[in-house]
């Protein structure tokens, strides 16, 4: 592999004396010019959020805002969230109207310091809405490396508001500076250009959250559906009326909400994971007995199942692992049980963190709190996206067995059916009645093999059939 | 082009039973591969058929030499009166090998010093294994191109590859060529001295493995052919796993989803071809304002349209990668880009891997050049046009030559070999100056790029300076029957010439088998053949070589053809 001297070899050597410059120097000036008229940015409310929908503006243009006051409600892919102002001033211009969608980090409104500046800000909003992409790039770099997505996201989400917070905001990618810099693979960029997809609105599902080709394709496909859906909706009924109307209007096409869009993308993505299923029938008489005993203390069946699952998982860490890149096992340090909950118009998976360590009473209280928050769409990102193993229970509907789809990023999900009174032949040849439930685990076969699941289920059955450990 | 690396590694060199290994028919058959991959000379395989008959003699004679070696210990400083060898070559890469074979042909008693493996960069970490990877990537790309297959009426279902299998192919090829090279030298009676060689004094070479006593040998003439190593700019941390050089990449231990390639010259371009065929996405980082800076601009533009734009490649030009941190602690490889002109930080990239292909740096450290008052320039050994080494005072060092990457004149394997042959010609009494303008270069992408002589801007500059008019002729592969039969009509051949006297200034080809096609042009330049004469040469039909036939025929030369090159008509 010979190389003639005149190629890029020479120019590279002139770079030797250069110091790597942090990036904060030259750029901050551009930012400070705008200090009097501040921009309110679309905050990153979760690690997977790349765009947010404005549910409603709580203030109108010209209103005075005090620090900490809620300005706008934003719908992310997981929850609705109030966004508070970090500064005092006047809401000068709203750049993204209610129902509009904006990329994380892009300006959604302008905040003027004095009343006089409102007009100036308004003028500015006209021009800057066109060049919002540039504004994003001119922001100062966060000084510290943004740490692992989920945990950081959690600490910021609720107080998120204007510039400052967004700079520390949750990372879609470890180095993407709170989602303001779009990290997309070369082919994804090419495709986006071809398919006219705005990368700022695409959720990255590639390694470390980068946008890869299939994300762009999915976004393009979704875009087509959304566009056609939007058009027909305008004919059928005024947009505002739709959420108020109870039930479903037949004959209409209704575009996904952000959450439904996220579910859709996740479901399509799950097709790229080679899964398999192993089922097991577990006798629950002992568990039912325990439940009856401690129900009065606020313990729920979900908590009991989560606890039992967590205890089984500690003995089978591979079932609690995940495969991020197709080449390795990621062994999770904690056992976080995500439990699927149906909420109005969607599905969310609140997470019982460290379910193996927390006692059953605390776990039950925690669960109640999570469900309440989920129904109110108030879950914080760390409360729904840190699961390492998922439980899905349809037993309350009388479903005796079903099959769950593995959520991307995790190794296994367990579908739990109803516990039913069953005629069972015992070992000694007698016929008896027992409560039995069927569980069915779907797992990523790249990391979890049949024997792993079988052993895990055996352990789980032992724990459930002799549940004394669940209460410590 | 090669390097005598200081770490010593057991090489396969002089083992008494070695000659027997080489007798299998498979070995003899595999020989011609030498020629194709490294520009080795015909002698390399001409002799392979003789190995059986002369093997005992070879072993005997080499044993004879080693006796002499141990006996010779001269004092440093003054040239010895009698010599152990006529010629010692430091470095058994392609350059050293070419020189050694030619020296033997000229009757010189020759030794070659090698501290690492025979074959140097080209055979072990360069042209040879990369050609294996490119052979795979070319086929895979073709098989995966549904459109292309359909046009030929072929049906292929989901073509895939096994990474380890591909890596093994490259590794096996390198070891096969390496043993061929070793055997060809052994068979000719070239002594292979194992160890790290240094210039000990005038006409003296010291060599030895780490932990073993050094040997000193004397020679009438010495050729330095220590080659080069990948050049890694400051600020880039190479870990061999996620931030790699071509040395690591050729082992193909990992095919990343997304790899940044720093430098878009031959090495970078070839690897982009390999990686994209294997499913990676590539980001080029180029310091100059355009990609493929070494190529003729028109060819570069076309190549970009075919090799870059439709593939999963994007690029940043006019930027330096000032800092590259390998992936660790769950973080990706982080690349900081700095604007080449303003020196302002421009962007940060996070990728799965980075390949540093910013060129090669001469491997001349520890060569003992200070013993003879020679100072390297950025590592390169200064030489004159006859490859004679120049010392710090600007004087020629007698009996010392430097060829190949170590002198930096033209960092190509076959250029090193040509320089070595030129030196041997000189030391055997025939003055010879190598014309580098006739040395072709090739980039083995799919399709290939090849060139010889000047680029268009260089030719125009020369024309302006010397007062002649530069004309350009072009032909397309689309008009070539064979290319169309292969459904590979994408390509261009371009000729730069003097219309007044028909001199060929440069030829550039982008298209199917361009690397094989260039030699008609390079030979014409080397022999001084003019267009008005070569256009009468006949090409078989239908072949790709007709692209060049057309090219020469389309040139408008004012000078008449020389009087018939064939003096006597021959009846057939």
From TrEMBL, chain A:
Compositional bias (Low complexity): 124-135
EC numbers on record: 2.3.1.-
Region (Disordered): 122-142
InterPro entries for the chain: 2-oxoA_DH_lipoyl-BS (IPR003016), 2-oxoacid_DH_actylTfrase (IPR001078), Biotin_lipoyl (IPR000089), CAT-like_dom_sf (IPR023213), E2/Pdx1 (IPR045257), E3-bd_dom_sf (IPR036625), PSBD (IPR004167), Single_hybrid_motif (IPR011053)
Signal peptide range in chain numbering: none
Domain Peripheral subunit-binding (PSBD): 183-220
Key words of the record: Acyltransferase, Lipoyl, Pyruvate, Transferase, Transit peptide
Entry GO MF terms: dihydrolipoyllysine-residue acetyltransferase activity
UniProt enzyme class: transferase
Cross-referenced Pfam families: 2-oxoacid_dh, Biotin_lipoyl, E3_binding
One GO cellular component, as annotated: chloroplast envelope
Domain Lipoyl-binding: 37-112
Cofactors that this protein relies on: (R)-lipoate
GO biological process per UniProt: pyruvate decarboxylation to acetyl-CoA
Family in the record: Belongs to the 2-oxoacid dehydrogenase family.
UniProt name for this protein: Dihydrolipoamide acetyltransferase component of pyruvate dehydrogenase complex
Organism: Durio zibethinus (Durian)
From TrEMBL, chain B:
Cellular compartments annotated: Plastid, Chloroplast stroma
Residues the record marks as active site: 541
Annotated ranges, domain Pyridine nucleotide-disulphide oxidoreductase dimerisation: 439-550
Binding locations of NAD(+): 263-270, 286, 359
Family from the record: Belongs to the class-I pyridine nucleotide-disulfide oxidoreductase family.
Cofactor section: FAD
Molecular function terms, GO-annotated: dihydrolipoyl dehydrogenase (NADH) activity; flavin adenine dinucleotide binding
Enzymatic class: oxidoreductase
Function: Lipoamide dehydrogenase is a component of the plastidial pyruvate dehydrogenase complex (PDC).
Name by which UniProt lists this protein: dihydrolipoyl dehydrogenase
Positions of FAD binding: 131, 197, 226-228, 405, 411-414
Record-level GO BP terms: 2-oxoglutarate metabolic process; response to arsenic-containing substance
Enzyme Commission (EC) number: 1.8.1.4
The reaction(s) this protein catalyses: N(6)-[(R)-dihydrolipoyl]-L-lysyl-[protein] + NAD(+) = N(6)-[(R)-lipoyl]-L-lysyl-[protein] + NADH + H(+)
Signal peptide (from-to): none
Start and end residues of each FAD/NAD(P)-binding domain: 85-420
Gene Ontology, cellular component aspect: chloroplast stroma; mitochondrion; oxoglutarate dehydrogenase complex
Cofactor: binding comment: Binds 1 FAD per subunit.
Naturally occurring in which organism (per UniProt): Durio zibethinus (Durian)
Gene that encodes it: LOC111306914
